[in-house]
Write a sequence for this structure.
């Protein structure tokens, strides 16, 4: 079955620095979705990418879908304490396969 | 105020006991899902339902059961056959059909934390 892997599992970032988290699929994806889960909370949808090579931005967050539609990345610039949480990528249609997530902590 | 409501927020199970987690949505979504989340891990699919009176096993269905008698409700029973039930359980729903925006987005409830006494 479809497997989605994320790296790194943990990301410790100094406030103000940039970082990137990566998502890789064993199969070609029709779309990739990204969710954010704050500590103690539930996953909340951030964005969906559908087209090969697509890039979307949300303020300091930049999401990219690979040309082969088998990988994706999330880049955060000038990290803030509000960015703390776990970021999940997920691929699929009516049934999503979630990656294990990248848990982000921020040093002030 | 539309959304997904899970109850209870915390639940404790005794040995050999079945417990039922509630999930209700007023978003008029056809599809509903149950996931299990363990510390440091992603979401694993337990069961899903794309329409009333129909549901399918996910990746880790053993020891769990569900029903879908109403569109709004998708309760999950954790049976005594589930030997390691301690986890965070998340219910989600999804609108079916393309509605002009991103499709196949899942909306999550606040979750139920289940522990074993």
């Amino acid at each position: 079955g479809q497997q989605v892997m994320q790296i790194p599992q943990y990301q410790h970032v100094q406030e103000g620095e940039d970082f990137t988290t990566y998502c890789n699929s064993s199969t070609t994806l029709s779309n990739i979705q990204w969710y954010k889960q704050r500590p103690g909370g539930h996953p909340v949808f951030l964005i969906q990418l559908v087209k090969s090579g697509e890039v979307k931005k949300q303020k300091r967050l930049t999401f990219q879908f690979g040309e082969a539609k088998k990988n994706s990345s999330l880049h955060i610039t000038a990290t803030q304490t509000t960015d703390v949480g776990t970021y999940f990528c997920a691929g699929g249609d009516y049934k999503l396969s979630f990656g294990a997530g990248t848990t982000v902590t921020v040093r002030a | 105020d539309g959304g997904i409501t899970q109850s209870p927020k915390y639940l404790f199970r005794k040995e050999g006991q079945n417990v039922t987690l509630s999930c209700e949505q007023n978003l008029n979504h056809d599809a509903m899902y149950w996931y299990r989340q363990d510390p440091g891990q992603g979401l694993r699919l337990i069961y899903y339902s794309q329409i009333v009176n129909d549901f399918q096993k996910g990746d880790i269905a053993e020891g769990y059961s569900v029903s879908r008698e109403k569109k709004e409700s998708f309760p999950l029973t954790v049976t005594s056959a589930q030997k390691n039930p301690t986890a965070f359980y998340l219910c989600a729903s999804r609108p079916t059909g393309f509605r002009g925006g991103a499709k196949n987005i899942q909306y999550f409830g606040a979750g139920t934390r289940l522990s074993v006494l």
Summary: DSSP finds no helices and eleven strands in chain A. The mean pLDDT of chain A is 95.
